[in-house]
């Protein structure tokens, strides 16, 4: 039987099963080699953009301080208010109604910046643009992925478990009061996007292995794991969830000694007061009130 030239050429050029499997295997090896490189490249691009955002925000905050008596942005008054049961304060800023409490100042700070920062600077790379509003012709956001630490809004003594007294120590701290500008975080990225195990978003503070951007008070910036920084000091007067004396606070947010402390190692915690005749490292005759997390002295014996 005669075979046409086209049919013979087709049979001659066909791939065998073995050849197809070899091609698939080679492609698979190439993808396995290139995928991590591509992921690192994308991750590096996200980190670079986050770093630029944090530095830009820090510069804008510094400019705000220069024009407002060296103080950080403050929208709310230092009034005791802790949970959803307490009515929040309401203020209007550049046509926007803002609700919150004293320590929300660190999350809502960007609403006082003028001119407003654009949404691209306030949202971390990978974030889906949301809640976009127009402020002075600039498309900005109500909820940002970067924040200022709580320790800028209370005295240094409030961030030491031995000297905390509660809301009487609340108050914005001057930028010039920061003792170690190159080691104290001023703006931190609190949400990260595009991680392998968390495809949408992940909190940056308190989680090992999560790299994020931090701008320091000297306006430098770095990409790092916030959980590897010096642990913060828990406060027992304003927090989410119960804390005891043995807990640690969040790095950057609750820096030991506040604006006088360091977020980067070396870290040397301050020893508690040592009364004469007492046990080193503990108040003489003191008992631990675990519920409140505060040292208290036992009641004196009743007189007969």
Task: Give a verbal description of the structure.
By secondary structure, the chain is α+β, with helices and mostly antiparallel strands. It has one domain (41-274, 288-294). The chain has four helices and twelve strands; from the N terminus they run ααββααββββββββββ. The strands form five sheets. The chain has a four-stranded antiparallel β-sheet with strand order 5-6-9-10. A two-stranded antiparallel sheet has the order 1-2. Strand 3 and strand 4 form a beta hairpin. The radius of gyration is 28 Å and the shape is globular. The model is unreliable at 270-304 (pLDDT under 50).
SSE layout and pairing:
Blueprint: H1 5-13, H2 17-67, E1 89-93, E2 96-100, H3 105-108, H4 119-122, E3 132-135, E4 138-141, E5 146-147, E6 185-189, E7 191-192, E8 202-203, E9 211-216, E10 221-225, E11 287-289, E12 294-296
Antiparallel strand pairs: 1-2, 3-4, 5-6, 6-9, 7-8, 9-10, 11-12
So what's the oligomer here?
A: single chain
- How many H/I helices? 4
Shape: globular
- Alpha-carbon distance between the two ends: 127 Å
Averaged pLDDT, please?
Answer: 79
Please report the total strand number as a whole number.
12
SSE-based structural type: alpha+beta
Helix fraction by DSSP (H/I, runs of at least 4): 10-25%
Describe the largest sheet.
4 strands, antiparallel
The low-pLDDT segments are 270-304
